[in-house]
Amino acid sequence: MPETGYDPKRSRVSENTMADFLRGTISGDISQVPGIGPKAVEKLAESDDDDERVTNTWQLMGKFLMLKGPDEDGYKVESNEHMQKFWHWLAEKGISSHRSA
Question: What are phi and psi of 6, to 5 degrees?
């Protein structure tokens, strides 16, 4: 069955690995983010538009936070929708694994 969006049950990153990352110091090295391997690093950095290139952890977190909005009158982006938006953004960047991490 093909993946159709964010599902935390599909994460291949262990709870311990994620917890260690969240408790640790963020260096900015995007390859230290659980689930981001060499191919993902390349794909995230690819873009003709410099504003769409993601080359460090800070930019990746920034993109994640940007997708939280926009909130409008009577409408707020809730957690599940936020995670779906990030999952689909990763898919558009060519990331095919660990999107649900």
Answer: -65, 130
Q: Which residues pair with 75 in a beta bridge?
A: 72
Coil, helix or strand for 72?
A: strand
Give the angle subtended at the CA of 88 by the CAs of 50 and 34, to the nearest 5°: 80
The predicted-structure confidence for 63-74, as pLDDT tens digits, reads as follows 999 999 888 888
How big is the chain by its Cα radius of gyration, in Å? 14
CA–CA dist 69, 18 (Å, integer): 25
- Burial of 84 per CB tally in 10 Å (0-12, 13-18, 19+): middle
Residue 100 DSSP SS3: coil
- For residues 55 and 45, is the Cβ–Cβ distance under 8 A? yes
State the residue for tokens 């558009």: 92
